[in-house]
Amino acid sequence: MDLLIKNGNVVTPTDTFKADIGVEGGKIVAIGSDLPKKAKDVVDAKGKYVLPGGIDPHTHMEMPFMGTTTVDDFEYGTTAAAFGGITTILDFAIQPKDKTFLDTIKLWRGKADPKVVIDYGIHLAVTNLTEDLVKEIPKVLSAGVCSFKLFMPYRKEGLMSDDGRIYSMLEESRRLGFLVQLHAENNAVLEFLIERNVAAGRLSAEYHAKSRPNFVEGEAIHRGLVLAAATGGNLYIVHMSTKEGLAELALMKAMGANVYGETCPHYLTLTDEKYLSPKGRRYIMSPPLRSKDDNEALWCGLADGTLSTVATDHCTFTNAQKDMGKDNFTKVPNGVPGTETMIPVLYSQGVGQKRISINKMVEVTSYNPAKLFGLYPRKGTLNIGSDADIVIFDPKFEMELSVKNLHSKIDYSIYEGFKVKGMPTYTFVRGKPVVYDRKFVGKKGSGKFVPRTKHQPLE
User: Fold this and answer.
1) How many Å apart are CA 320 and CA 281, to the nearest integer?
2) Could you report the per-residue pLDDT of 84-133, keeping only the tens digit for each?
């Protein structure tokens, strides 16, 4: 065997048990007690958890937005991800207005293929949906891309899709078996509130949040869910942040619609008080941070299965880039880092605080995204025949998160000074070490594009 992991506590969505795992040719070939110790590399995981590699289904590497580009390229971003126990990212390829879907895939792969240190897939972020492009969708699915993101806001930025286009894509998703992702905010209301606050000279970071109150998300989620139910389509709401949106999702799921929700660690742990600080613009993302009540509601939504996944919306703009809006919140590039800190924060604040079990953590960061986005059973599970994407997680490893000890190219952390207990110490992608005893041993370009199959509904 190429790799043998001994004595670890293997975690699945339903069980935790002590076992050894043997790896050969990039695949898991054996799981059992006291496997023979003959292997090129033997790692003793006694006292540690052995997890399926994390899947971050929402990242933005090298993304142009608001006149600038995210600072993490695919090398820096995936290196940071590997230190956080992420073995696969799904990045959003933003469709240029003059490009087809297939052109966009080629553009994004040209950026990613030479740089990634872990595996990756692509979502298509649709900005210009035409009848000809709808006809191109079967070719996109054949190219291994089976998810399309539509934006309800960002009219002025040229990203918005109206309800008719969303309805059309949901119809196609039912027919062809792909997943529609939706950024749900009511564009007309948020534009009105932004214009009102700007006209009144209310330009500080707190007015980013006040221009996007909870109902702006809640109403848009309701509308998206109604369209999904009407068409029988497959809908996934990205980066949910409010208790109102959660209630809408729970109601529609109870009615049997094929709809899913994602939240992010910052919506579980941080509040809108951050906007009152001198560095409040660092925390500007859309939707914005909410209240403590929303934090707790989202934790409950994870625990009871209303929410299916946790992702990061990793979107890195430096202090200098954020300072483009130092005198006007509308000029601040939206986005925060997160792919390295997702699993440690979930473990510390979720498992450590008994809000969720470690099995639930594995479910929402690995198994569920693998199923929903057509990666299972190749990824998202520790089964014989699956890719040997394996993370050894030390529950006793304590660390104070800081820009000084994280690996993104960004020059700050939204979790600066945040103490976590529990960290990934080894990350293997297809059996090859990328992080080994907290040291980077990966290689630029060693990651692979992973073609995905059609969306698989969760049980």
Assistant:
1) 11
2) 999 999 999 999 989 999 999 999 999 999 999 999 999 999 999 999 99
Parallel/antiparallel/unpaired status of strands 3-11 and 41-44: parallel
- Topology of domain 73-372 in CATH is TIM Barrel (3.20.20)
Which tokens sit at 24? 């050969």
Across the strands, what pairs with 440? Answer: 435
pLDDT at 331 over 90: yes
Give the three-state DSSP class for 345. helix
Decide: 185 and 274 in contact? Cβ < 8 Å. Answer: no
- At 247, is the secondary structure helix, strand, or coil? helix
Distance CA 434, CA 440 (A): 6
Q: Is the pTM of this model over 0.90?
A: yes
Neighbours of 397 (CB within 10 A): 15
Domain ranges for the chain: 3-51+385-440, 73-372
Q: Which CATH number fits domain 3-51+385-440: 2.40.50.140, 3.30.70.20, 2.30.40.10, 3.20.20.150?
A: 2.30.40.10
- The predicted pLDDT at position 255 comes to 94
